Amino acid sequence: MNNQRREMVDGASAIARGALDAGCNYFAGYPITPASGILSHMLRELPKVGGIGFQGEDEISSLGHCIGAAMAGATVFTATSGPGLSLYSENLGLAIMMEVPIVIAISQRLGPSTGAATASAQGDIQFMRWGTTGGYPMIVLSPTNISESYHLTKRAFKLAKRFRTPVFLASDKDTVMTTESVPVDDMKHAPDWPEIPNGVIKKPLDPYRVDGPIHHYTGSSHNDDGHITKDPDIIATLNERLRMKIESNLDELSLVKSDLEAGADTLMVSYGVSARSMDAAVNKIRNAGNKVSSMTIYSLWPIPEKTIQDCLKGIKRVIVPEMNHGQYLREIERLVNRDIELIGVNRVDTILITPEEIIGAYHGR
Amino acid sequence: MADKILDTFIAEENLPYAFCPGCSHGKILEALSDSLKQQGLDPSEVVIVTDIGCVGLSDKYFVTHAFHGLHGRAITYASGIKMQNPDLKVIVLIGDGGCGIGGHHLLNAARLNTDINVLVFNNFNFGMTGGQHSVTTPLDSITATTTLGSTDAPMDIAGTAQVNGGGFIARATAFDKDLPELIQKAMNHDGFSLIDTWELCTAYFVPRNDFGRKEMMEYMDSMQMASGVLQETDRPSFQTSYKNIQKQASEQSPMSGLVLDTKFSSNLEKPIRIILAGAAGQKVVSAGNLLASAATLSGLWTSRRADFPITIQTGFSVAEIVISPEPVDYSGIVKPDIVVIIAQEGKAKISRLTNAMESTGTIYHSEDLGDIDSEANIIPLVFPYEGKRDMKKNISAFTVAFLTKELNIFPFEALKEATRQIQKPKIAEINMGVFAYFE
């Protein structure tokens, strides 16, 4: 029994509160289950604090409005699900090229159209990474529960500003639409995560303003004045800089929870709602007297390669539970030696992976 | 207003224009520059948002702020800029191609009466990509993609903006001497403005269709598409309306969590997974909230998921509640400990789960639901006889009261406290009336 003060919160509220506390003053989005809760909260809350909450005529318009507002100085946020992400795709590339800070909450579900589409899944892990033309690196954070949803949303705003790029908050139907009893302290204080340094890589975004310096911003390949160029040297430098501003800062971006047990030769790696099933499985395995290590990945992209490799010492087997056909497993595969056995525990039927399935995989069943 | 009025808003160091010989684009840009000059604006007060196509090359010729984004989406960026900073004058330069692919944004910006200024460069085909047909290509015209003549009815861009409520709508040509004054009028209008400016694509449309200035004017006549101001309304702009929303909203309190302090205790030793399955309108989700809140008030940890069809007041309604002495990690339910079924719709929806239950589980059900195929213990719900009259209307309240007594996970007082804390006074009063039958 406990006497902690707790509150009843669902993921959508936690994400909205995180955005508001991060200073968000502009939101544009389009209704889609299971992300609509975030839309409703933002449209209701932002005008209360002098901000703007806008429902676009579609997802293309919504992200377009966010990009415009950001260039005029707003701290912007949007939320959608997989089908909406499809429509965000082209503007996502524009935001990367223009170096626009935007936080995009993706509440994952299963596939196109309706029906099973509004049920649980983690189907957009690779889609978020490769979701636009050009192959630029993405920053993707993924919470496993409600208080993390709040804190990672705030963190996403810091990263978007510092790196001047879109940042995804990748949750799922279950995290966004489930209400839980959450300690008030857990909502107030972030877990023991490394602080993100202040300051902006390269230079801060200088918005359009009356009496401000004149700015030409473009989504085309451009020179330092913001004018379109086809000069191969300028284009190469621009593209390399966009890549390296993220890839040369992997240490700063890596965020994981490692739970390593001495002598364990099995490592479990998971993220989002599936990491909770993994945690339950790990507890049961240990209670039964067996050894196992685990890692929860919060920073899905860029992949925390070094941290994962550090956790692979002495490991003979890696088990990756995820609600897709193995989208993150293929990334782990790149990082491990060939003699390490890789096992995916996968479900794509809208039902959460059970701890028993993971335990079954551990025992080779 | 500018401290010093510029002679031109054209960035002369970037001239000459990259447009084809005879193209009208430069004429419209000069008219815009003249208009900005006449208005005495400072370059920092103006943002020119260009769409894609030949017109998209225009941003570099202006000394103002500029934004160049995606094809068809210029109106969305312009609208975002204006919403965030209403002090800026935001002008969209877009072609007939952009009005086609971005037609949705065009008509919605007109509907919202967003205070942006759209200047359409309408030359009846796609110039940049080789003269394909666009939404405004006249009937029977030859283009790269209508080699035997276009069979499509042309879109009336100005008319579209007009019928969708745009504040200031005009039609003009690149050859109009008073285009700068028309642009000024449009920019001074508080609300959406659009000028559908007809012009010539000398690279493709003119030679393929023998369509010069004279033919364009004849076409305008034949289509009965008059030039000049077509619509001027005093409907408030989005910016004005939203300020009013902000003012009203500022009086409301911000969102906050529902804090439930631990006031009761529980002897629960391991997690219990409960499913309430009923029909829409039976307040099943609300019952799930009550159970989860009462458990939380008793120091337990809870997670509560709801499942219902996208339509309301029809079909099933299911609440899944996990109650645990420890924080809930895995919140799914594949094998419930307790199921309560109060309607056929709910019974059908969760049959997969009731089938999976073993003899350790219990299913409570209301009368007349037929056989339930399960290994679990199947027990009819029995409610106090005195409450019979209220039962049908408040079956969820009866159900949570019954479960609270039957399972004894937390005290009955916790259920009453939860009702007082989370439910609207009117509903709480009704529920308290139901609970009284159980005491």
Please, could you describe this protein's structure?
The complex is a heterodimer of chains A (365) and B (439). Chain A is of the alpha/beta class and 365 residues long. Chain A folds into 2 domains: 6-188, Thiamin diphosphate (ThDP)-binding fold, Pyr/PP domains (Rossmann fold, 3-Layer(aba) Sandwich), CATH 3.40.50; 257-362, Rossmann fold. Helix content of chain A is 39%, strand content 20%. Chain A has helices at 11-21, 36-45, 59-71, 82-98, 125-129, 146-163, 173-177, 184-188, 232-247, 250-253, 272-287, 305-311, 329-335, 355-362, and strands spanning 6-10, 26-29, 52-55, 76-80, 102-108, 139-141, 166-172, 179-183, 216-218, 256-259, 266-270, 293-297, 299-301, 317-322, 341-346. In chain A, the strands form 3 sheets. In chain A, strands 3-2-4-5-7-6-13 form a 7-stranded mixed sheet, sandwiched between helices. Chain A has a 5-stranded mixed sheet with strand order 10-12-11-14-15, sandwiched between helices. In chain A, strand 6 (139-141), helix 6 and strand 7 (166-172) form a beta-alpha-beta unit. In chain A, helix 11 (272-287) crosses helix 14 (355-362). The mean pLDDT of chain A is 95. Chain B is α/β, with parallel strands linked by helices and 439 residues long. Chain B folds into 2 domains: 12-245, Thiamin diphosphate (ThDP)-binding fold, Pyr/PP domains (Rossmann fold, 3-Layer(aba) Sandwich), CATH 3.40.50; 272-436, Pyruvate-ferredoxin Oxidoreductase, domain 3, CATH 3.40.920.10. Chain B is 34% helix and 19% strand. Chain B is built from 16 helices and 16 strands. Chain B has a 7-stranded mixed sheet with strand order 2-1-3-4-8-7-9, with helices on both faces. In chain B, strands 12-13-11-14-15-16 form a 6-stranded mixed sheet. In chain B, a hairpin with a 5-residue loop joins strand 5 (125-126) and strand 6. In chain B, helix 1 crosses helix 6 (179-188) and helix 10 (284-297) runs parallel beside helix 14 (395-407). Chain B starts with 24 loop residues before the first helix and ends with a helix. Chains A and B meet through strand 1, helix 1, helix 2, helix 3 and helix 4 of A and strand 2, helix 2, helix 4, helix 9 and strand 10 of B.
